[in-house]
C-alpha cells in the first residue's frame, strides 16, 4: 500500500494560506494608504482641464442618477384588453413614458397568464371531481 505524505485529518499547511500577501491585496493596501494624495492629484488634474480625471472624480463622487418611476393614474376597471388599450392610449398621448407603458403592458400580460393558469387549475379540479363522482 502506498504511504501518504500527510496523515489523514492533519493539515499539510497548519499556518494556512499567507494573509494579505496576494498582489491584489498589496495593491489595495497601497492605494488606501495613498488615497489622499491620489484624490488631491485627480482634483488638480481635473482643475487643469484633464477631462479623464474629471470623469473619474464625477463617476465616483456623483454617480449617475437612476431613473425614478413617476406616479401615474389610470383606470383599473374593465378587461385586461381594455386596460391595455388605456395604457397604450396614455403612452401615445405622452401621459406615460414609453418605458413605463411597456412595463405596464408586460405586467398586464403576466397577469393574464396568471388568470389563465388559475382558470385552468379550477377547470381541472372540477373535471377531477366529476370523474371521482362517476367512479
Key features of this structure:
135 residues; mainly alpha; 4 helices; 64% helix
Q: Would you write up a description of this structure?
A:
By secondary structure, this protein is an all-alpha fold. Helices cover 64% and strands 0% of the residues. It is built from four helices and no strands.
Order of helices and strands: HHHH
- Low-confidence region ranges: none
| Structural class computed from helices and strand pairing | mainly alpha
Tell me about the biggest sheet?
none
User: Mean pLDDT across all residues, rounded?
Assistant: 87
Head-to-tail CA distance between termini: 67 Å
In DSSP terms (H or I, runs of 4 or more residues), the helix count works out at 4
Shape: flat
Number of strands: 0
CA radius of gyration is: 32 Å
In what range is the share of β-strand residues?
under 5%
Helix fraction bin: 55-70%
Amino acid at each position: 500500500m502506498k504511504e501518504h505524505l500527510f496523515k489523514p485529518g492533519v493539515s499539510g499547511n497548519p499556518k494556512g494560506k499567507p494573509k494579505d500577501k496576494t498582489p491584489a491585496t498589496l495593491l489595495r493596501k497601497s492605494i488606501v494608504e495613498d488615497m489622499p494624495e491620489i484624490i488631491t492629484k485627480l482634483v488638480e488634474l481635473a482643475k487643469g482641464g484633464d477631462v479623464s480625471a474629471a470623469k473619474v472624480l464625477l463617476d465616483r463622487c456623483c454617480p449617475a442618477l437612476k431613473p425614478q418611476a413617476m406616479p401615474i393614474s389610470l383606470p383599473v376597471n374593465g378587461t385586461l384588453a381594455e386596460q391595455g388599450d388605456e395604457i397604450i392610449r396614455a403612452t401615445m398621448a405622452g401621459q406615460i413614458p414609453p418605458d413605463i407603458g411597456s412595463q405596464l403592458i408586460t405586467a398586464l400580460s403576466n397577469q393574464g397568464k396568471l388568470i389563465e393558469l388559475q382558470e385552468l387549475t379550477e377547470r381541472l379540479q372540477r373535471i377531477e371531481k366529476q370523474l371521482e363522482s362517476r367512479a
